Amino acid sequence: xxxxxxxxxxxxxxxxxxxxxxxxxxxxxxxxxxxxxxxxxxxxxxxxxxxxxxxxxxxxxxxxxxxxxxxxxxxxxxxxxxxxxxxxxxxxxxxxxxxxxxxxxxxxxxxxxxxxxxxxxxxxxxxxxxxxxxxxxxxxxxxxxxxxxxxxxxxxxxxxxxxxxxxxxxxxxxxxxxxxxxxxxxxxxxxxxxxxxxxxxxxxxxxxxxxxxxxxxxxxxxxxxxxxxxxxxxxxxxxxxxxxxxxxxxxxxxxxxxxxxxxxxxxxxxxxxxxxxxxxxxxxxxxxxxxxxxxxxxxxxxxxxxxxxxxxxxxxxxxxx
Length: 321
Ligand SMILES: [Zn+2]
Ligand SMILES: [Zn+2]
Ligand SMILES: [Zn+2]
Ligand SMILES: [Zn+2]
Fold this sequence. Notes:
Elements: H1 7-29, E1 35-36, E2 43-44, E3 50-52, E4 55-57, H2 60-66, E5 81-83, E6 86-91, E7 110-112, E8 116-118, H3 120-123, E9 126-127, H4 133-148, E10 157-161, H5 163-170, E11 180-194, E12 201-218, E13 221-222, H6 223-242, H7 249-267, H8 272-283, H9 289-300, H10 306-318
Parallel strand pairs: 10-12
Antiparallel strand pairs: 1-2, 3-4, 5-6, 7-8, 9-13, 11-12
The structure holds zinc ion (ZN) (4 copies).
The site of one zinc ion has 4 residues, from α6 and α7.
């Protein structure tokens, strides 16, 4: 019987063994460690070199190129500043105090009433009356029903408004950061029946003559903010129909924020702007909006699936009666 020997396998084996031996020998004999530039990989043999955060650099140039860059102007900076709202961005000394776009954290170019501060990039996708906003609203309403099963069937009038328009519709100055409004207007009719002969009142009853549901959203919101605001207001509409007895602002606003948060997580899980909006909701210091959101999330998120979460939320809201 002839045994076939695989020479290449043997060679590979010898090579692997020998390289282990070399490494081992180098460690054992404590051969002088070579210093390599962390930027250009050049071997630093002698002379002066730079050390920053435990890394070696062969030249001033390599050091400068390795410094973190300002997210706004791109300048390498030895010291950078962060914003709690956008921890992934860093700003240099010159840019640290400039106003930031509330949508993405870039330096803002526009400041509008209603605390809308946006950059040139986000300015390109703001929602204005130039767009078919009624269709966009209808689509979102459908999407919310499909994704989370939240919604009503009555007609809702939708319009974009200016900041002063929002204040007028609300009848008072909008809350800090308020970008939308849901209104349920009722007109009641009083019906009185008299006795034909005596003129005495026989019965009195008040009936609903007309009711209107409207949602107003600030114009010039970047698209993701628009989606967040519309879903928040649609949740108010849903709550007013199914849980009209709930008065506590933490539960109302918390539920609307939670539904908007869940909706963005489901429909735009990889969108950077949606991520920013969600993290704002999660860290919002406001006791009603932020505190309410965290309270509702704690209750609903005990459910493992989306369906379970909505079920838990509904059970909690029903229990408030
Ligand atoms: Zn170098
Ligand atoms: Zn800068
Ligand atoms: Zn922006
Ligand atoms: Zn609200």
